[in-house]
Design goal:
This protein is an alpha+beta fold. It contains 18 helices and 30 strands. A hairpin with a 2-residue loop joins strand 25 and strand 26. It starts with a helix and ends in a 15-residue tail after the last helix.
Length: 759
């Protein structure tokens, strides 16, 4: 593939430290013997795409405008369960500007790809409030919305089943669970026995950017611009849905606008835009409304969890049984692994975990930041804290005594695990030693003060990933991968990593992403992208070095002739011998002497088959500390201070990594104190489907947050990294609950923790 500076600039990624280089700026090529550049990886560089975002030049899906583009709007069901008996569309069809109206009566067949929600307009069954019943295409968005409101529907109405404890709801196992040792026997023999139930509600992702799709047909070829955390995955999904060769589908998502997991799937509104565009023969844009975001792009599952724990008086864990019931849609296959973290969190010989689903007439759930772990860890870490009071052992000391030095399932040592150092460092920064053991013993004026701690973790996750790296004639480089940037800083850290490996300045490296035609990348989720993509880029750089050695293999004037890759390093835009830096040559000189405009190489990494070397693959670990203030009379809770000590392996950019931990903690505050997607039991309607009614943390709810990174590079990852996108959330809800108990003496086991529970 031919690479050029123009392609890099089109992606808006040629950068210089704090901002983009002007489009006319030449790449900087270092002199052959200039002093070595400072280490790039780990430096807290500003985001390389920050200038585009703040200047309004970042191309989000909502910004795409195609010539002659029509607009679509969705008509949604006003019941939660039943069947369409009649649907009248004549008024909509005759409304001004309307080009087409599609319902289940005239929509073409759409296949349902594996792992995706049900395809739209494929039958008369309604299985949740807000179910897509029709799509209207018109000349303007206002005309489409008006016409959609004119559609009349008659139903055969059934009683909705929306409560997790409704006995009418079908139940089914969710995953295989874990059984280790003799849990009933160990519980019976334990000196201290614990048995409690925890509940967590549905939370809705609520990215600020409304989800949209622009679909364009060019003969048999389809192009889609949409909010996607995986353009490659959306391409495969759309190809399967519309029975097209994957090569005939292109998905663009260079900027997503927030996802938190909601953009991991190809939702029905994307398929509706594709159907509409094919029907009218024009490009079509479809934008969801905020209420439709609540019903159309997933939510965190609600749970009811029972924990039974056996412990000796010295704090030794003897048995853990963790059972969870989670909400699911009638016809969907999303599963949150709620109890899986419990199986490996602490050293315990006798463990049983099980997840089950209850099928309800609700919109389909999906992964939401720290899926499963967020709900399960709230229960487990609250229970461990409660047990610390029962046995009279400091909450940190109790966790240290039960530290799992090996993976409890496989028995293998972790590829990295600095959790004990997280406890020590976090306690030091927080001032944990000043905490009195007795609840309700700290007070300032009208406020009760409480300190809480919780373990944070998120398991290893990784999928196969590909990337390509090219060096251009002037010595600059371009990295290419179809991955998405969802705000985590992927553009920045991969640019830094590539620049360091290539021996270039950050401003001389471009990074093209968000295009499914580029080398295939996995979904940006599960805290797994940086490790997989970083390893693929690293592999591509090594192959590129081999390409340069092959290029000069027959060149008697080449200083690198006959060299091996393992003998080389890269500095200041040149390859050279590690033990003799003077023997080397710039990339630009090698390309020029051999008449090449560029040289490129592909790289790939498959963590699912990569040899772990007898190690258990570790995710991120951490300890999170919270100080809360509770009004003694009103019961209002204020999070006053947070400290997070995190083992994220090798940190590629402390600034963006810290931002991820802080952002996760904001989500944790929301989960703990505010967020609850409320569904009316009589109608199945979400009653707070607007930003006016769905409570989320605002600036005044988010305190100062001190983040410290500890640990060493991970031994499984070729580049030493572990993802940190989720771990910053997982410890916050239980840490807040534990702090509230320390402040008030009241143990709250139901989220969100609201003032009525404290009065």
């Amino acid at each position: 593939m031919e690479f050029s500076r123009r392609s890099a600039l089109r992606a808006g990624v040629l950068v210089a430290g704090a901002g983009l280089l002007p489009a006319t700026a030449p790449a900087r090529t270092a002199a052959a013997h200039a002093p070595a550049a400072p280490e790039l990886v780990g430096a807290g560089l500003n985001r390389v795409d920050g200038w585009r975002k703040v200047s309004g030049t970042a191309d989000y899906p909502n910004d795409v405008a195609e010539p002659g583009m029509a607009h679509a709007a969705i008509a949604c069901s006003t019941i939660a369960s039943g069947r369409i008996t009649a649907i009248e569309v004549s008024r909509a069809e005759s409304a001004p500007g309307v080009l087409a109206v599609l319902t289940h009566l005239n929509a073409p067949k759409v296949q349902r790809p594996s792992g995706e929600p049900p395809a739209p307009l494929q039958g008369d069954v309604v299985d949740h409030h807000g179910h897509h019943l029709a799509v209207v295409v018109a000349r303007t968005p206002q005309q489409a919305v008006e016409a959609a409101s004119l559609i009349e529907v008659d139903y055969e109405v059934r009683s909705p089943v929306v409560a997790i404890d409704d006995p009418r709801a079908p139940r089914a196992p969710a995953g295989t669970g874990t059984t280790r040792g003799d849990v009933p026997g160990a519980l019976a023999r334990s000196e201290v026995r614990y048995d409690a139930t925890f509940t967590t509600p549905a939370n809705t992702h609520n990215p600020m950017g409304l989800f949209s799709a622009v679909a364009v047909w060019d003969g048999p070829r389809l192009t889609v611009h949409s909010n996607s955390q995986g353009p490659s995955a959306m391409r495969e999904s759309l190809a399967a849905a519309f029975e097209l060769p994957a090569a005939d589908v292109t998905v663009f998502a260079p900027f997503v606008g927030g996802g938190f997991g909601s953009a991991l799937r190809t939702w029905p509104h994307v398929q509706l835009a594709v159907l509409a565009a094919r029907e009218v023969g024009l490009p079509v844009r479809l934008v969801l409304t905020r209420p439709q975001m609540f019903t159309g792009v997933g939510h965190r599952t609600g749970t009811v969890q029972r924990l039974r724990i056996g412990m000796d008086r010295d704090g030794t864990l003897r048995a853990i049984e963790h059972r969870s019931t989670q909400t699911a849609a009638v016809d969907d296959d999303n599963v949150d692994p709620v109890t899986s973290g419990t199986a490996v969190r602490y050293a315990c010989a006798n463990v049983a975990t099980r997840d089950e689903q209850v099928r309800l007439t609700i919109p389909g759930p999906c992964s939401m930041r720290a899926p499963g772990e967020a709900q399960g860890n709230f229960a487990l870490e609250s229970a461990i804290d409660e047990l610390s009071y029962q046995v009279g052992i400091d909450p940190i000391e109790l966790r240290m005594r039960n530290f799992a030095a090996t993976d409890q399932e496989s028995g293998l040592p972790w590829s990295s695990n600095a959790l004990r150092e997280c406890y020590r460092r976090g306690a030091e920064l927080f001032g944990w030693s000043r905490r009195p053991a007795q609840p309700r013993s700290l007070r300032e004026g009208d406020e009760l003060v409480g300190y809480g701690v919780a373990t944070a973790s998120f398991p290893f996750f990784g999928l196969p990933c590909e990337a390509s790296v090219a060096v251009l004639a002037d010595g600059a480089a371009v990295v290419r991968s179809s991955t998405a940037e969802i705000g985590t800083g992927s553009r920045t850290v991969i640019t830094q990593l590539a620049a360091e490996r290539l021996g270039l300045e950050v401003g001389a490296v471009g990074f093209e992403i968000g295009d499914s035609r580029l080398p295939a990348a996995p979904l940006a989720g599960g805290s797994g992208l940086t490790g997989s993509l970083g390893a693929a880029v690293d592999a591509a750089v090594l192959r590129l070095w081999r390409g340069f050695l092959d290029l000069v293999a027959d060149d008697p004037a080449a200083p690198l002739r006959g060299a091996r890759v393992d003998q080389l390093a890269a500095t200041d835009g040149r390859l050279h011998f590690t033990d003799d830096p003077a023997r080397g040559e710039t990339y630009a000189a090698m390309l020029a002497r051999h008449g090449r405009g560029d040289l490129a190489a592909d790289g790939a990494f498959d963590p699912t088959s990569h040899d772990a070397g007898g190690l258990a693959r570790a995710g991120a670990f951490g300890a999170q500390f919270v100080e809360v203030r509770v009004d003694a009379d009103l019961g209002t809770v204020r999070v006053a201070r947070i400290v997070s000590a995190i083992d994220g392996g090798r940190i590629l950019n402390e600034k963006t990594a810290r931002s991820q931990i802080i952002g996760g903690a904001v989500g944790g505050i929301g989960m703990a104190l505010f967020e609850d997607t409320a569904t009316d039991p009589g109608t199945g309607r979400i009653t707070n489907a607007t930003f006016a009614d769905y409570l989320i943390p605002v600036n005044g709810d988010v305190p100062d947050h001190q983040v410290a990174f500890v640990g060493t590079p991970d031994r499984f990852s070729p580049v030493g990294v572990k993802g940190v996108g989720e771990v910053g959330l997982t410890g916050l809800p239980p840490a807040i609950a534990n702090a509230i108990h320390h402040a008030t003496g009241k143990r709250l086991r139901s989220l969100p923790m609201t003032l009525d529970q404290l009065l």
